[in-house]
Amino acid sequence: AGSGKFFVGGNWKCNGTKDSISKLVSDLNSATLESDVDVVVAPPFVYIDQVNNSLSGRIEIAAQNSWTGKGGAFTGEISVEQLKDIGCKWVILGHSERRHVIGEDDQFIGKKAAYALSEGLGVIACIGELLEEREAGKTFDVCFKQMKAYAGKFRHTVSPSPPVDAVPSWDKIVIAYEPVWAIGTGKVATPEQAQEVHVALRDWLSKNVSAEVASKTRIIYGGSVNGGNCAELAKQEDIDGFLVGGASLKGPEFATIINSVT
Ligand code: PEP
């Protein structure tokens, strides 16, 4: 872990029922959590209100997606304003399932991020390469291109087009490096593989945004993190936390991951 506050997000994806979520919330409420860690959970939209009304204020709530602008005639979409209205502080954007299963592209994701940030929502900005991209030696190229889509859009959130490092909202961005081949597969990146990309991302931020943003921005790792592998990953200097899918559905295991920073 680096110098920034450790950040652990739980992405519940499209899982759960009223009953199973009530059990998960009660397990989280009774868990002992390290105080020096930011903890966020992302329930499915339809359960956000239930979670917000029952979860201890120690944990903040994220949405798993948001619309690119103000609400209106956009059937099936959920606006940033609505998310804030029901108590969300964060939104996960650019998740690999949205990119590769649903087909969202960099430009669309960048637009969503820019809008969410402009409205004061924190953004967990996901990036990551496919297995074939890693095998072709393109991991850094792919990740930098995805970073650029976020950074370019952030630049346009203030006018008239100041340099990227003038954007105030970098404070509300957490970068989640999630190699696609590691998500939901049980194939976790080794601590060295993750650390190597996190260092490259920090270097990219330093060259393309500013040294200050590079040192302050939290870069978290996601992809088959569990109670057994989190401690080794958390020891890496540039891993500032985790985004957790499957293991975040089990309260005690999620607590172990949150507490892995010690
Ligand atoms: C995720 O969906 O962000 C994720 C990392 O999933 P899992 O932990 O299940 O691999």
TrEMBL record:
Signal peptide: none annotated. It comes from the Eukaryota. Keywords: Isomerase. Pathway: Carbohydrate biosynthesis. Belongs to the triosephosphate isomerase family. Homodimer. This is Triose-phosphate isomerase.
